[in-house]
Design goal:
It contains 7 helices and 18 strands. It is an alpha+beta fold. It starts with a strand and ends in a 5-residue tail after the last strand.
Length: about 400
Amino acid sequence: MSATTPGGNAVDETTGVPTIAYEEGKRQAKAPDWSKITWAMLPALQQAGYLKVSKEYVVKFGYDPSRSWNAGQKSDSVIMLGDADDEFRFGYFTLDDIAKITSANPKAKDPTLKDVGFVKWQTTASLVKAIPSLGNLRVAQVKPILKVLGKYDYLPSSCRSGTISQCLRVNPKIGERPLGDIDLDKYSTSDIPGLQQTQIRKFKEWQRTYINQVPNLNQVPFDKMPNQIKSGTSFVGIASTVFGKSERGDSRVGDAYYISGSVVRGDSTKFKACETGIECSYLELGDLGGKRGALYGKRWASGSSQQVKGGYGFLAGVNGGKEPTGRLVYGNGFKVVMTGANESTGTADFGLFLRICVRPPFQQKTCTPYFIGPAPWIPVKENDLVILGTGR
């Protein structure tokens, strides 16, 4: 059974993350309130990192997912739309959809074309491919296209008298100039008819747009994404005992004793025991069904002390092929990792880690290990419930 706290405005004191009370009998947990949590609201990343992809693979991918980030940077400026599209379906949004969800002021001015990250690498040809109705208009009717094609007086006659599609058919090269060559700040999104009503995934290389480069996308609650985030409460255990840094991996305690591990192809958690003799802080679990329950005595190991194999496909080699041990609690958008153990307070700290994924044309998805993070997450205290999800 779950219940919201009075007023529904609880916030975790350590992270600032909105929460709701989730209850099972006399026990409870702080569950994330996904109706209030947005990308902009997620705590800042605590570690710097980078990804560099060779030109050979940029050609295969169709865009360049390379980037770098600093400690203290927010994840909405690090994660591109393509990285987590399988989980959230960003590409199915239109700009109008986002504006309605975020209750953007209807009297406010439309965003400029500069505000929309993917516009600068669009060409007239790619815009017409994304918005076919645009091709039926005359060049002079669409000011940004007129500007990027050149001065009206110097345009070929087919571009001055015919439609945009006719212009491009006769003069295909004229449609290859990117819109980023003009001052996009002078034009609004309404200056390209249909732009606001077209799904983002229709546009050229939309995947390499950062979340914060799409107007108000970072203000959309996670439960309002085209593919809603999972609550994780389908599988819940008891946080029995926190064990700190003095613990070491034991060869007698195998994979079957753990509920943390690596994420494998198909995006499921493969349980992995701590390495023998290596520091292994962990949270020991209890089961709501008692000693006979499947979770009784299982361990969630700390990712701060144990790294496991991660990723798949070409990008699996990033970060040495390693990710902190943990599990998929809310789906594959984040990996939830235990990041610290305080025996004296009986508290286990957690963080969210993210990854970079690419789906090359006509090929399987490839993903890095979950190595972007951590974004501090809701801690768990002994004797409280711990939300586990299904591991998928």
